[in-house]
Amino acid sequence: MAKSALLVMDVQRGIVDRFGEDGGYLPRLRRATEAARAAGTPVIYVVIGFRPGHPEVSPRNKSFGALAQGGGFAEGDPGAAIHPEIEPEQGDVVVTKKRVSAFAGSDLETVLRAGGVEELVLTGIATSGVVLSTLRQAADLDFGLTVLADGCLDGDPEVHRVLTEKVFPRQAEVTTVEEWASAQGAGR
């Protein structure tokens, strides 16, 4: 059986706050992290983060250009912190990225290869952002993929639905947090 890792992506205060309380997202995500740890599956947090002054952000970058002007997600920004309801525990890895995909500008692939990880379980905000970009790049890097559909959020529910029901199944298994978490317990 291939070694898996659970990726918790962009679940940072400043991002979660944009979505408000959606009726259970963070508790579901906590259920996934707890199930992963209990099964011995590494939990890897992926965060967006920049140096002060955002020297990594080109003004031509439509996604991050406005963010840089506002000073967001730089070192010391409280909004850049992982949401306290799902904070990493000892032994979890935190990877900082510089673009939308979890692999872009980070050492994620190095961490995964060093740990012998071949399968990724994806969660995060937003489905149409970090989850989509990471899924596409991970598939090109030959990782096996699972997406926890209710472990992802998007500002547009219809985009989330189309991605999780029509697009992601072409490259990944798509399931729920509870189904995945229950299977982790059965595998022990």
UniProtKB/TrEMBL annotation:
Pfam families: Isochorismatase. Keywords: Hydrolase. Signal peptide: none annotated. CDD domains: cysteine_hydrolases. Residues 4-179 form the Isochorismatase-like domain. GO terms for molecular function: hydrolase activity. It comes from the Bacteria. Gene3D superfamilies: Isochorismatase-like. InterPro entries: Isochorismatase-like_dom, Isochorismatase-like_hydrls, Isochorismatase-like_sf. This is Isochorismatase. It comes from Streptomyces nanshensis.
